[in-house]
Design brief:
0% strand, Helix Hairpins, mainly alpha, 99 residues
């Protein structure tokens, strides 16, 4: 039960960070924190098998999720780098700066 609560807290913190930050890199970090919370909940709710072992399906799903999360993070960092190179900023502002 404690791991489910911890996963929910991690997810909530990541969700808050993704909406509260303007910096693209900090948004990516927040999304990774939220996904870590989801992974923790998925592994912690896995039922034990009758012979005392653990169910490999949730572990395989989390491992697949980690691989996808790494790929999405790498793509997001490449986009953030491109945004920084093209526009000279790494934030998502609603208003355009006038010079």
């Amino acid at each position: 039960m404690m791991f489910i609560l911890l996963g929910a807290v991690l997810f909530a913190l990541g969700l808050y960070g993704a909406f509260a930050r303007r910096n693209v890199v900090l948004k990516l970090v927040a999304v990774n924190i939220a996904s870590s919370g989801v992974f923790l909940v998925v592994v912690s709710v896995a039922p034990p098998l009758p012979d005392g072992g653990t169910d490999p399906l949730p572990q395989a799903l989390v491992l697949t999720g980690i691989v996808i999360s790494v790929a999405v993070t790498a793509f997001g960092l490449a986009l953030a780098r491109r945004l920084g190179a093209d526009e000279g900023r790494a934030t998502l502002d609603d208003e355009e700066e006038t010079s």
